[in-house]
Design goal:
11 strands; three-stranded antiparallel sheet; SH3 type barrels; Arc Repressor Mutant, subunit A; 3 domains
Length: 275
């Protein structure tokens, strides 16, 4: 299984970042540079012409023949590794009938979108992109300085400064029509993003229209203290957090059992919703 895991790591980085070298293999598996080189060479022996070494970048770059076999090509897989170091075991297990998990539909993210974004984020520079928003019929060209990836409502966003709008915005990764690395150094970085760096307390409670028994059930479900649950969120993510919790702010559901939870400090957090 170890060799399969190492091939998986090689393909994961090559697919999403467009290149791979020995460094991440050395770090992830605590092996020598010689062993990491041997893994890449062994992979190439079975997958000829899929990677080509570039002396200037000191890395293997993917070619048009690159066709990964060990990864599932979802961006969640890449972020699971990047954020928590998750590496699949590749052990075959029979699914348990008593432990069924409904998986949400994956959103497709093109690696040609991710590669320049990852490079720009690492170098604190810009990308030149075309983005199709729900408010425009045609994609608009804009210069974006990305600083963070966020998953909300089962889709990945990138947050950064938009030169077109002169503000920090969130962009759904699947809505980019094209992204090219620009290289212009960022003047507005994560440090200047006030909404991102401000943390807000969301105070939640059972819908007051519910019966006492129903309220007690929810208090137990969420391990509330004194009938309240405090959720801390970045100012920029307040709306996403409430949406994911299915908590409406403009209008309550007609059926309190559909709403279940309400935000009791709405006056404190509304500026983060509509600013």
């Amino acid at each position: 299984m170890e060799l399969t895991q190492r091939y998986w790591m090689l393909e994961l980085l090559a697919y999403w970042e467009g290149k791979v070298n020995t460094k991440p293999l050395i770090k992830a598996f605590d092996i020598s540079r010689q062993s990491a080189s041997a893994i890449i060479n062994k992979y190439l022996a079975s997958n000829e012409n899929t990677l080509v070494y570039d002396v200037t970048q000191k890395a293997y770059l993917i070619t048009e023949a690159f066709n990964p076999k060990f990864i599932n090509k979802t961006v969640d897989e890449y972020f699971d590794w990047q954020q928590v170091g998750k590496i699949p075991s590749f052990q075959s297990r029979e699914p348990s009938a008593s432990q069924i998990r409904i998986q949400p539909l994956p959103r497709y993210v093109d690696p040609s979108v991710m590669r320049p974004l990852l490079k720009a984020m690492k170098c604190k520079t810009a990308v030149d992109c075309e983005y199709l928003s729900v408010t425009n019929n045609e994609p608009l060209g804009r210069l974006v300085y990305p600083h963070s990836f966020v998953k909300a409502a089962n889709r990945w966003h990138v947050r950064g400064f938009c030169a077109l709008r002169d503000n920090y915005l969130d962009f759904v990764l699947s809505r980019f029509r094209s992204v090219e690395y620009d290289g212009d150094e960022a003047s507005y970085t994560e440090k200047e993003d006030v909404k991102w760096n401000t943390f807000v307390d969301l105070i939640l409670a059972p819908d007051p229209r519910l019966s006492d028994i129903q309220k007690q059930a929810l208090e137990k479900d969420f391990n509330m203290k004194d009938g309240r649950l405090i959720v801390k969120a970045r100012g920029a993510l307040v709306k996403y957090t409430l949406d994911d919790l299915q908590i409406k702010t403009k209008m309550l559901e007609a059926d309190p059992q559909a709403q279940q939870l309400v935000c009791v400090n709405y006056s404190d957090i509304k500026r983060w919703l509509y600013e």
